[in-house]
Amino acid sequence: MNYRTNIMSNANYYPFGMAMSNRNGSVESYRYSFQGQEKDDEIKGEGNSLNYKYRMHDPRVGRFFAVDPLAPKYPHNSPYAFSENRVIDGIELEGLEYLDADNTNIDCQQDNGDGTYSVTLGETEFTGISRVTINGSDFYDLGQHMYHNDDGWSTTGTRHEQATDETKVGIQLISNIGNLPKVPDDYTEPPMWTNPELSWAVANKYQNCRGMCYAVSMARVNQAFSDQGVNDAISLNTQTIDYRISRTSSKAPLAYKGYGVGGAIANNGYGILINNAGVWDGDLQKGAALQYWEHTSFTSALQNGFNGGGHSIIFDNYNFDNNGNIIGFNYTDYNGTGRVVNYNNGIATTSNATRIIVVGANLIDP
Questions:
Q1: For 204-247, how does the pLDDT look when each residue is reduced to its tens digit (9 = 90+)?
Q2: 129 phi, psi to nearest 5 deg
Q3: How, if at all, do strands 98-100 and 137-141 pair?
Q4: Rounded to an integer, what distance in angstroms lies between the CA atom of residue 252 and that of residue 172?
Q5: Residue 187 class from Cβ within 10 Å (0-12 exposed, 13-18 middle, 19+ buried)?
Q6: Which residues touch 365 (CB under 8 Å, ≥6 apart)?
Q7: Which secondary-structure segment (H or E) carries 289?
Q8: What is the mean pLDDT of residues 107-117?
């Protein structure tokens, strides 16, 4: 019996992850690079932008271009440093994963009486962990993902089996929207194309408020960050760069153009950009601020000035088939909750659009 190994990628790196010239190569479909992280070649060219969970890393300068979400806990470290500058014996670690305390599959949970908790998930035990309350619901901060399937709990698994969510602000955002009431019978919708202030005023009052889609998303994201103690994640002001990026103005910076509200958040250091490939590879986290376009590719949308159908939405959760493959996701928007994007044979659709591409940003906890 003969076995033949197919080499998908080979690479030699400088210490912070920049690929050495003429000493690397990969098949076109291979999207991963230094430390197994996904490349986002659309932003800065091939291999120059690596997508870590909460921030983008530029291996040419050895720095992240967003603040470390754990910066307040480690004041002695630079908030932009990569792997604490230990690039020989260390790798970049990112935690902050939350498990709903009401998850019925938890084997054992105990209050230690000192402000910490112990939780048992199968053969994995967590001791001395914290518990946070978001909109009345409790979550354990496990510091790592946990997965659950018919065989029980595991520290590894597929996106379909993931039982934890990444950010408090994302959980806060989806919870906020879900708790909003529907509009009353005598409700007057804000205009769709003008006066964003009117949409900002009702976005956090009613679940199906209508109005300007991106203005509604701006206000809802702003409220979720405010609930988590941050007031500069996105500005509700038509004279700011946040507004120009959110509405995909011709004056928006090219690096964030087309990413909508997610682009504005990422520009302020509170989001990590996700391209269309990443969306369908399972990279989205609860509460991600997304923008979809009725185009066949992001390049096509950019070349056409993002003319045509576009819409601002908030990601809730993926939908899977019986084999664990992503077949779409649920989202919220100015129409309310329970909206769906379907995905089949590499094509994403909605009830109103026959083909879309989706981009945006995952939120970063303060």
A1: 999 999 999 999 999 999 999 999 999 999 999 999 999 999 99
A2: -95, 160
A3: antiparallel
A4: 28
A5: middle
A6: 54, 69, 96, 167, 168, 169, 228
A7: strand 289-293
A8: 94
pTM above threshold 0.70 = yes
Query: Per-residue pLDDT for 362 more than 90?
Result: yes
What is the C-alpha separation between 214 and 219, in angstroms, rounded?
9
Structure token digits, residue 64: 């992240």
C-alpha 86/C-alpha 54 separation (Å) is 19
Bridge partners of 109, per DSSP, are 119
Name residue 24's amino acid. N
Q: How far apart are CA 222 and CA 251, in angstroms?
A: 22
Give the tokens for residue 142: 């496990």
Structure tokens at 249: 């103005």
SS3 of 109-178: the string is EEECCCCCEEEEECCEEEEEECEEEECCEEEEECCCCCEEECCEEECCCCHHHECCECCHHHHHHHHHHH
Counting Cβ atoms within 10 Å, is residue 89 exposed (0-12), middle (13-18) or buried (19+)? exposed
Structure tokens at 169: 């602000």
Give the type of residue at 213.
C
Rg of the chain, C-alpha, whole Å = 21
Q: Where are the domains of the chain?
A: 37-89, 98-165, 170-363
